[in-house]
Amino acid sequence: MKQTNKLTIVLNLFLGLSFAANAQAPADKQAELKYRRSSLHLILLESEDFPRKEVVMKAYHEAPFPDKYNNHAIDVNSVDPTPYALTDAEKITAGTKKTGMAALGANMLAGATAGIVDKDAADMPVITDKIIKDKKIANKLVAKWFNRQADGSFDMKLVGERGSYDATEMQANIAKGSARGTASLSDAGEELIGNTFVVLTRLKFISNEPIAAAIREVAKLKANNLPAMFQPAAYKLLDVAYNKAKEGYSVWTTSYLYRLKWNDSIAAVFYNDMWMEKGKTDAKKKAAFDNNNLFQMEYIGSEKSSSLVTFSLKQTRTEDQIVELATVRNVEHVFAKLQKAYEVFKPKTPIYSGEPVTAKIGMKEGLEGGEKFEVLEQTLDPKTGLTTYVKRGTVTVDKKKIWDNRFNAGEEVSEKDEKDKKDKNQPELDRTYFKGGGKFYAGMLLRQIK
């Protein structure tokens, strides 16, 4: 990815447990580990036309769902952001409106690349906020959690399944008006509902040449201000950089992360003013849920990634297959970056075997070797009845034994991509190994330390 990195650098310069695990079972015959995962919904931000758009979109929609999260799908899967574009007044309020030389530089680069470089990229978090509110995403996520029906009734079936709670007991406590003092309901709110996320993703597949050319032209304008004796050398360096950066295509992915706000106060209003069971419906409570502004999403942050794509490997795959592979790998990379950057989004991963310590994570999660993880044991606080996680030690990823669990593992996107090169003499792995020991056992949880 050396060329992509160069292109990105130049662009930046100019754009200024409740778990069911049999710990005694042999490592290769584990029962499926059940643990409390965060829940996730994915939304695709539709884009204008670009080369091979149909292939890119198809690859995104058919990509495997991130397996460290519960699939909390609602009925909003893609959104056209165009109607949500910011007015100048909104840009000023948000602090994203460019003026003077900043606006000139952004407009020049966007114009020279026919819009490939988005001069309004800084507006996107505000635009995604507008989308989240307009589509009532938070309401839909809550409705999903409590299995809301057309008549407005709820139940605790999904909460019970994902958290290994007694759903009948939970519903009985709500009906008695004692939801606030019920440990299982508080625990479910903190462990499950409060860890519900939405990721909105924007994709582009672009030719590198127009961008490289535009950057060269903008850089030449700056080089014109150098003393005359230095200008020829500067122009030559720019031409060399252009010739290296122009090759191939790039997949660009930007993802925006949101978290559902949920606390005791919000839960109390929901259970007291909106909750209804089947057969006990109330028109006022139904309307209260439909028309409320109680449920909100919190913007956590964004990450972006780009991958170089060349078609020099066509003898083994079609160009469309190469584009598909690059698209999915790039989305995986963005998710790995989100997990590393934001503590709340880091998934917990169960230990697969205790000696040696192994786990079913790998390159897809961005592991390269040397990353440190804390080992957690899930316990129940006898005083509060709430789930807690006690740190029992730390382990480090063995860089020589990392599982390649990426989409179509072992296949190359580009012959220049060193991360895709494999040592054919190394045995295939089905898990990642960790260094460090202790009284660890299958079912304990790993969480990466930032």
General description of the model:
With 450 residues, the chain is α+β, with helices and mostly antiparallel strands. It has one domain. The chain has helices spanning 2-14, 53-62, 88-94, 100-112, 124-134, 137-145, 157-163, 167-175, 183-191, 208-223, 231-245, 264-273, 283-291, 319-341; strands at residues 39-45, 70-71, 78-79, 196-207, 249-260, 297-309, 349-354, 357-359, 372-380, 387-397, 432-435, 445-448. The longest helix is centred in the last third of the chain and has 23 residues, at 319-341.
- Helix and strand content put the structural class at alpha+beta
Q: Order of SSEs, N→C?
A: HEHEEHHHHHHHEHHEHHEHEEEEEE
Number of helices: 14
Average pLDDT confidence is: 82
Multimer state: single chain
Q: What characteristic shape results from the CA principal axes?
A: globular
User: How large is the radius of gyration?
Assistant: 25 Å
Low-pLDDT ranges: 1-31
Considering DSSP H and I runs of 4 or more, what fraction of the residues is helical? 25-40%
Main sheet summary:
6 strands, mixed
**Termini gap:** 24 Å
Whole-number total of structural domains: 1
